[in-house]
Design a protein that fits this description.
Length: about 180
């Protein structure tokens, strides 16, 4: 008898729980309307809109050799400073090599807009950077770290003293 009482009580509580879940999940209509997206009723179509049929062409901006040099000079300084930072922290050799390759590319672009005497001095800096790049082709145990640090200091000093845009007035092609 006692068993029958508990089974009826458990059955009744399960039924009430199921009923509460069903009522809760179905919800009421105003609440359901509140959270469903309605189409806009007052949407007015603008009939005065005329699409542009002929695109307006703008002239291509012309950059001179000084502008190109300034752009490549600043990019070289960024890539080389990134190299120096990653070299000092020895984070990732692939990143170091990538920074060196990007710096070498920018040096090549800088040389393209310079005249002969300054271009040859910049070629010396490029050889220094290329030496450092070649050192990274060797295993880490065979690299000359003292020479690499010396070359880094030399490159930074030379670039900061001799190759600023203000120092090279009259040394650009087309002037």
């Amino acid at each position: 008898m006692m068993m029958n009482y508990f089974s009826r009580r458990n059955g009744l509580s399960v039924f009430v729980l199921c009923l509460a879940v069903v009522v809760f999940l179905t919800g009421c209509e105003p609440l359901r309307k509140k959270f469903t997206r309605q189409k806009k009723k007052d949407r007015v179509v603008n009939e005065k809109f005329i699409p542009v049929l002929e695109p307006e062409e703008y002239p291509v901006k012309q950059y001179g050799p000084q502008d190109a040099y300034a752009q490549h000079y600043s990019l070289f300084k960024v890539w080389f400073s990134d190299f120096v930072n990653t070299y000092e922290q020895t984070i990732n050799e692939k990143r170091v090599i990538y920074n060196l390759d990007a710096a070498l590319k920018e040096l090549g672009e800088m040389q393209k807009v310079l005249k002969s005497p300054v271009q040859e001095e910049l070629a010396k800096v490029e050889k220094q950077v290329q030496f450092i790049r070649n050192e990274y082709a060797k295993p880490k145990a065979f690299r000359n770290d003292a020479r690499i640090r010396s070359e880094i200091r030399g490159i930074q000093a030379t670039v900061n003293k001799k190759f600023k845009l203000e120092m090279l007035k009259g040394s650009f092609l087309g002037e």
